[in-house]
Specification:
Blueprint (H helix, E strand, L loop, with lengths): L2 E6 L5 H13 L2 E3 L14 E7 L7 H8 L8 E8 L6 H4 L1 H9 L3 E9 L20 H19 L1
Helix pairs in contact: 1-5, 2-4
The structure holds flavin mononucleotide.
Length: about 160
């Protein structure tokens, strides 16, 4: 299954750690939104989209990239993220990206999220929250997510 993962990670590289683990399991090509050739995505069977959560959404570069995509009817996609606060609910934080992808005809086949180091704004004054995350446990969960996805799509 030819897989691409498009990931934007700038705050602490948290989401990139998750992306690398998922990419290793799925033998996926990892790329950044700004270096993604939208017309070249047709050759992939599965595309992963991930970033940190900024103001309750994925990064705007990822959302904008999806906006520029042609119709992708039936193409399989998965969504992942890392977030600092609250419940890292996929339902809430993933809503905008999910809506964008579904609007282009993608079928969402899986979602993954975990807490991660966050030093945004006043949190910086206390050294941030979730320092050390994603940790080994989070990254093992990312491995399991990717293996489950591969098994699900195989059969
Ligand atoms: C500008 C900014 C806004 C953020 N907004 C949120 C938010 O709305 N909810 C949340 O849980 N975390 C928020 N965070 C924390 C990030 O989601 C978290 O640190 C994430 O792991 C960053 O991923 P990255 O290192 O891959 O960029 C924010 C961080 C920054 C820098």
């Amino acid at each position: 299954m030819k897989t691409a993962i498009i990931c934007y990670s700038y705050h602490h590289g948290n989401t990139e750690k998750v992306a690398r683990r998922i990419a290793a399991v799925l033998e996926a090509k990892l790329m950044k939104p700004e270096e993604t050739n939208v017309s070249g995505l047709a050759e992939y069977d599965l595309i992963g989209f991930g970033s940190g959560i900024y103001f309750s959404k994925h990064h705007k570069s990822l959302l904008k990239l999806v906006d520029t995509m042609p119709e992708m009817k039936g193409k399989k996609a998965f969504i992942f993220s890392t977030a600092g606060r609250g419940e890292p609910t996929m339902a809430g934080n993933h809503r905008a990206l999910r809506a964008g992808l579904e609007g282009k005809g993608f079928v969402i086949v899986g979602e993954f999220s975990c807490y991660a180091w966050d030093t945004f704004f006043l949190l910086r004054l206390i050294g941030g929250i979730n320092k050390g995350r994603p940790n080994d446990d989070d990254l093992t969960k990312a491995d399991v997510f990717a293996k489950d996805l591969a098994n699900k799509l195989k059969g």
